[in-house]
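Researcher: Structure prediction, please.
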Amino acid sequence: MAKPNDALVEAFYNTKYCVEWQDGCVSNVFLNKPLPLPVIQWLQSVDAQTYAIVTADNPHAQTRPEIDNIKARKRLKSVLAQQQLPYQPTRHVALHGDWPDEIGCLIGAITQTEAIALGRRFGQCAVITGTIETTPTLVFIDEYK
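Model: Predicted structure follows.
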C-alpha cells in the first residue's frame, strides 16, 4: 500500500468541515477532534451510529468550473435521496485559504465501505468517516494511496 501524498494529507487536516444547519448555525468538524455536540445530536436524531463527510466538488483534486461542481453536487444529493440516507450540507474551508471552498454533505447511517464507494463514484481522493463515539478519520480511496 503506497503512502498518500503528504501535501494532500496536510490539505485535508488543514480544513474545517462546517456543517450548516437549517437555523443558520454552523458546527465545525475537524479531523481527529471530537465531534461537536450538535452533530452528535443530529446523528442520534436520525438513528445513525456511523457517518461520513463527502463532496462531489473538484474531482481528482483538480479545481473545476463552478458550474461543473454545481452539477456534481446535484448528482450527489440525488444519490443520497435515492439511497434514503439522511444528510446535512457542509462547506469545506481551507484554513490557509489555498483551496476554494467545497460544498459537501455530512451523511448519517453510512458505512466506511459505502462512503469510499460514494467518494470513488464522484472522483474524490478521500472521504471522512467515523462513528458517533469516534473522532472523524481521513480515509483515502485506493487510487490515491
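Model: The chain has one domain: 6-144.
Researcher: Thanks, that helps.
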